[in-house]
Amino acid sequence: MKTSDYDSFVQKCAEEQELIQAKFHSDYNINNYENWFYNQATGLLTFSTGNDQINFSYIQIGTFSENTKTWKWSWDNDHTLDNVKDQANVIREFGETSHFPKLTNGYFSSDEYEAWEFTAIALKLTNGIGVYRPVADHLKIFMVIIGLVDNETAENIKSKYVECEEHEYRRRAFVCRHLNHVDKVGFEEAFETFEGMELSLDEDDDFMAWCNECEKVRQQEGEWNKTSMEFADIKLVCEKCYFEMKELNLGT
Ligand SMILES: [Zn+2]
Ligand SMILES: [Zn+2]
Predict the structure, then answer these.
(1) Where are the domains of the chain?
(2) Which ligand sits nearest to residue 244's alpha carbon?
(3) What is the pLDDT of residues 89-126, one digit of tens each?
(4) Which ligand is nearest to the CA of 214?
(5) Given Cys at both, which of 40, 75, 194, 250 links 81, Cβ 3.0 to 4.6 Å?
(6) Ligand 2 centre and the CA of 169: distance in Å?
C-alpha cells in the first residue's frame, strides 16, 4: 500500500462531502430547527421545532472520544445497535480490498480532523445525502444521513417502539395479562418468532403471545372474539420482555 493512495482518496471524499453537505443544508435547513433527537432503535434522526419536524434515516459511522483522543468505528462498537451500524460494514470491506488499515482497525488514537475524514469516506461509500455530528458527554458521534423519511412513515416506525422500565427503548410486543416473568403459564404465539427478527412495517405484524388458559378459551370460542379477547386482556410489553417470557415458558 502506498500512503498517497489513501491520502488522495480521502482528499477526494472530503471535497465531495463539502458539496453534498452544502446541498443538504440548502435542501432541508436543519439549522433552523430548535431540537434534534436520534434513536438507534428506530434509526431515525429527527429535527423539530414545536410540532414541525423532519426525519431522516441515518447510519452511525463511529465515535471520537475527547477523553482518550481515540476513534472507534461503529462496527467495532458493541454499544451501537446493528440497526444503525450494519451498513457501516461496507467501509471496513472497502478498507480490506484497498489495504487501508485505518478503515479496518476498529479502535485507535486519532483526532477530530481525521474523524471527519472517516465520515467523508463513509458518506461516499454509503451514498449518503449529508453528515451530522451530535455530542454526548465526551463523545462526538459521527453519522451519515441516508435519506429523508416522510413524517407519516416516521410516526409509523416510532409507534412500533415502546419504552420499557427494564430494557429502555425497544420494539413493542403484546402478551396476555397472564404471561409474566416468574410463572410458567404456557406460551402460544400468533406466528413463529425469534428475537431480533424483521417484522413488516406496513402490515400489523406484531409479536403476540398468550398463555395456555387463554388458548383454551380461544379454542372454545373458535377464534379471537370479544369473550376470548376480554379474557386475555392483551397488554403492551417490550420485545426483550417478550422473549424473556418465551424463554421462561419454552426454554430448556
Ligand atoms: Zn393468558
Ligand atoms: Zn422490557
Answers:
(1) 3-151, 160-250
(2) 2
(3) 999 999 999 999 999 999 999 999 999 999 999 999 99
(4) 1
(5) 40
(6) 8
